[in-house]
TrEMBL record:
GO cellular component annotations of the record: membrane
Bilayer disposition of the protein: Multi-pass membrane protein
Name assigned to this protein: Uncharacterized protein
PROSITE patterns with a match to the protein in the record: PTR2_1
One family name in Pfam for this protein: PTR2
Region feature Disordered, mapped onto this chain: 567-594
Principal cellular location given in the protein's record: membrane
Alphabetical list of InterPro entries matching this protein: POT_fam (IPR000109), PTR2_symporter_CS (IPR018456)
Compartment(s) where it occurs, according to its Swiss-Prot or TrEMBL record: Membrane
Species of provenance: Zingiber officinale
Length: 594
């Protein structure tokens, strides 16, 4: 005794007579954080100002430009779901992030080429002439750039945070305080880096685009993305690369497929657990009575064919566990509440305020002018400040009043966020009405900068940021609380689906409003000339839809019932806790043996 452990440890550290470097840990984080920060600075720096590029350079109508950007946003939010599936089930996170980085870089290079290559964009409008639109080949290059960047987003964003967490060895049954502290440090730095990257994107990158032109303004993100990819690849030999395993999302798909295959079988009585396939060691032995159709996915029809000798399913696409069925039921159960976030996503993704800001006075002092798209940073500042104030100052007193550890209930926070989102759209409508009225009074119906400070837009951006802090963050915590720890990725998937659907619905709304209001020779509410259009009417329409969405949320909330009421996972989590305590005790006893 006494020498075996050191010898074994030394053997693991030596391969071919050479000491092997320990992989993972804090030394890998600079490469991962640099990749994340530079990728976000590059991509968000392009997105925030892109409506100016499309309307001024490609001569698109504001409605068409907004629809293109919303469709790009929808694609960028849907594809991370497939990226997460590929990473978990087939390729692993490292390969998916690397591939995503290359796709993003390729897309940014293509977008940069639209500004660099002569003839890659429509000719500039000559004085007094009609502006020519983009040709099919010019649009193909532009949309191809957006497509490559969306694919890249689908690879980088769903995996970056999880890959960073993989660099810390969490396989111990009972991590010590240092392990927990180091992992928490990584999470803190990760979220700080996201905030810093957004601020840099919405200020520095946009300022370069406005003052140095599009050739340099689009070239800087290309350089940043290239450096981002290089940083990530440089750390390849240091990373812990967790092998891909079965994805939780594929487990949900298996339940749906098997339930459809078994649609004609008769369900046994719920009290008879011998008919249902149970996860080894789980106390969840029979499915619940809700959504009973899905229970057919875990019925054992032929034990000899359906089960392996160790009790596992011979084919997971023919037989699922009771837990898989209950997880899918949990997803279905939260979908109505999830759908209420679509309207909030539409409000958050509005790009028309950037056009409004471009028509207003943005000077701070006699010599400095704020870029139109940089006003958006007020939303991020409001969100960050409120999260800090709420977490540090308000949670404790609210907890004493409500008896809830986090002060307000999750559904209360989501609902309040939807109310704030409705107020934000009302403020948008009022501000645009005042801006348009002043433009008319100043004789600027055709063109010109309205003598009205762009600071009038700050209240609506602050309200949008607060709405996001309440509703979006509340959604994340709500989804996480409704699923077992092994399925927390579903929460991020649902949020991504919400934003993707919101962008898609927003694009449809914009297209319908533009077509209907310009029918029969009328002037579109979303006309190229903001002063001739009626963007205030458009915002009032969104406000009415947002108010209706609040009532829809109240209905869904009442149908759902009390949050966390049916915790089917508590038994298993308690069992895991007991097993960890038993393992820890056994380790202590073994260490005391001679």
């Amino acid at each position: 005794m006494g020498m075996e452990a050191p010898v074994a440890a030394l053997h693991q550290e030596m391969v071919g007579g050479r000491p092997q470097r320990k992989k993972g840990g804090l030394k890998t984080i600079p490469c991962i954080i640099a990749n994340e920060v530079l990728e976000k600075v590059a991509s968000f720096g392009l997105l925030a100002n892109m409506i100016i590029y499309l309307t001024a350079t490609y001569h698109m109508k504001p409605a068409a430009a907004a629809a293109v950007l919303l469709l790009w946003g929808a694609t960028s939010n849907f594809l991370p779901i497939f990226g997460a599936f590929l990473a978990d089930s087939w390729l692993g996170k490292f390969r998916v992030i690397a591939a995503g980085s290359f796709f993003s870089l390729t897309g940014m290079v293509l977008l940069w080429l639209t500004a660099m290559i002569p003839g890659a964009q429509p000719p500039a409008c000559s004085a007094g002439s009609h502006c020519l639109g983009a040709t099919s080949s010019q649009l193909a290059l532009l949309l191809g750039a957006f497509a490559f960047m969306a694919i890249g987003t689908g690879g980088v964003r769903p995996c970056s945070l999880a890959f960073g967490a993989d660099q810390f060895d969490r396989r111990k049954s009972q991590p010590d305080a240092d392990d927990v502290r180091v992992l928490q440090t990584f999470f803190n730095w990760y979220y700080v880096s996201v905030g810093v990257s957004l601020v840099l994107a919405l200020t520095v990158i946009i300022y370069i685009q406005d003052h140095a032109g599009w050739r340099i303004g689009l070239g800087v993100p290309v350089t940043l993305m290239a450096v981002s990819t290089l940083f990530f690849l440089l750390g390849s030999d240091m990373y812990i690369k967790v092998k891909p395993n079965k994805s939780g999302l594929s487990g949900l798909a298996q339940v749906a497929v098997v339930a459809i295959k078994n649609r004609n079988i008769i369900l046994p009585p719920n009290s008879s657990d011998s008919w249902y396939h149970k996860k080894k060691g789980s106390k969840l032995t029979v499915p619940s009575k809700s959504l009973r159709f899905l229970n057919k996915a875990c019925v054992i029809r032929n034990p000899e064919k359906d089960l392996n000798p160790d009790g596992t399913a011979a084919d997971p696409w023919r037989l699922c566990t009771v837990e898989q069925v209950e997880v899918l039921k949990a997803v279905v159960r939260v979908l109505p509440i999830c759908s209420t976030g679509i309207m909030a996503a539409i409000t958050i993704s509005q790009s028309f305020p950037v056009l409004q800001a471009s028509s207003m006075d943005r000077h701070l002092g006699p010599h400095f002018q704020i870029p139109a798209a940089s006003v958006v940073v007020c939303s991020i500042v409001a969100l960050s400040l409120w999260v800090a104030v709420y977490d540090r100052l308000l949670v404790a007193p609210l907890a004493r009043l409500t008896g809830r550890p986090r002060g307000l209930g999750l559904k209360q926070r989501m609902g309040f966020g939807l109310v704030l989102s409705s107020i934000a759209t009302v403020v948008m409508a009022i501000t645009e009405h005042i801006r348009r009225r002043r433009a008319i009074d100043q004789g600027l119906m055709d063109k010109g900068i309205v003598h009205m400070s762009a600071m009038w837009l700050i209240p609506q951006y602050c309200l949008t940021g607060l709405a996001e802090a309440f509703n979006i963050i509340g959604q994340i915590e709500f989804y996480y609380s409704e699923f077992p720890r092994s399925m927390t990725s579903v929460g991020l998937s649902l949020l991504s689906l919400t934003f993707g659907t919101g962008s898609l619905v927003g694009a449809v709304i914009v297209a319908v409003v533009d077509r209907v209001t310009e029918a029969n020779g009328g002037v579109s509410w979303l006309d190229r000339n903001l002063n001739k259009g009626r963007y205030d009417y458009y915002y009032w329409m969104l406000a009415a839809m947002s108010v209706a969405n609040v009532f829809y949320f109240v209905l869904c909330s009442q149908i759902y019932g009390e949050e966390g009421k049916s915790k089917i996972w508590e038994e298993e989590e308690e069992e895991e806790k007991e097993e960890m305590e038993e393992d820890q005790q056994a380790s202590k006893e073994l260490s005391m043996m001679p």
